[in-house]
From TrEMBL:
It comes from Anopheles maculatus. The keyword Nucleotide-binding does not apply. This is Homogentisate 1,2-dioxygenase. Its EC number is 1.13.11.5. GO terms for molecular function: homogentisate 1,2-dioxygenase activity; metal ion binding. Fe cation binds at residues 177, 183, 213.
């Protein structure tokens, strides 16, 4: 959720998920979502594999998102007769409806680990360079859904949390780049350092694979001239990225119907100047 909490009921119990928390519901689990008012957020559905914590490599035993901070529901059931209870299932890309005369949330107990869970992004332990250079944003991976090609993800969920920035001799914001992943970015709240202007909470950007992108002109000028002292960045901000080795298609709704496409987005780079001095 980006705006308003989600009051989620699942066959395993209930999850109350507030903005800056995320919720993962594995395939095939029945759930319903109750809202308390205006609501908005971001959904990522993977069609292959499951999300898990990334391998920590030399980071070692703990760090990034720690297992202890993932919360699963306690068993909860209701014995409720309901005429025409509608169950909506997605199968092969289409939605199907079945009706029954009782609540599906009548599972009395459960064991195992194929369960829905939630996680508070504020609990993420941030790792970064304390010497020089801008790290690959993979250091900010909360969860990954690996593909069967090693090192390549069906999807990574990456956050850009509040943190200290201390690198020396470095252009600290994201570098200008083209890469082999599709990057869908969203903003829960605050201002993303590389696009303080046009990128608003609830909005999204998509940089498809091998499409060049990077900070806007204002960010470039600011960071190029800033004194490199230790500095807090992203306080009051939560930006994130869904990154995939697959392509993401834009629907007609996203491109036209919603009338929210920023056709002038590219202009954020137009003022960048050439800085070669012979
Ligand atoms: O494009 C972006 O803003 C996301 C991003 C951030 C970063 O720090 C490095 C690479 C990257 O793709
Ligand atoms: Fe990027």
């Amino acid at each position: 959720p980006q705006q308003g909490p989600l009051d989620i009921t699942t066959e395993f119990g209930r999850l109350y998920v507030k903005p800056n928390e995320i919720c993962v519901i594995p395939q095939g689990i029945r759930f319903s979502v109750a809202l308390e008012g205006p609501s908005r957020g971001y959904i990522l559905e993977v069609y292959d594999g499951h999300f898990r914590l990334p391998d920590l490599g030399p980071i070692g035993a703990n760090g990034l998102a720690n297992p202890r901070d993932f919360l699963t529901p306690t068993a909860h059931f209701e014995d409720r007769s309901v005429d025409g209870y509608r169950i909506v299932s997605k199968f092969q890309g289409a939605l199907f409806v079945a009706t029954q005369n009782h609540s599906p949330f009548d599972v009395v107990g459960w064991h195992g680990n194929y369960v829905p869970y939630k996680y508070d992004l504020a609990r993420f332990m941030v790792i970064n360079s304390v010497s020089f250079d801008h790290c690959d944003p993979s250091i900010f991976t909360v969860l990954t859904c690996p593909s069967n090609r090693p090192g390549t993800a069906i999807a990574d969920f990456v956050v850009f949390p509040p943190r200290w920035s201390v690198q020396e001799h470095t252009f600290r914001p994201p570098y200008y780049h083209r890469n082999c992943m599709s990057e869908f970015m969203g903003l829960i709240f605050g201002r993303y350092e590389a696009k303080e202007g046009g990128f608003l909470p609830g909005g999204a950007s998509l940089h498809s694979m091998m499409t060049p992108h990077g900070p806007d002109h204002r960010c470039f000028e600011g960071a190029s001239n800033a004194e490199l002292k230790p500095e807090r960045i992203a306080d009051g901000t939560q930006a994130f990225m869904f990154e995939s080795s697959l392509s993401m298609a834009v629907t007609r709704w996203g491109e036209e119907t919603c009338q929210k496409l920023d056709a002038r987005y590219y202009e954020c780079w137009q003022a960048l100047e050439k800085h070669f001095h012979l």
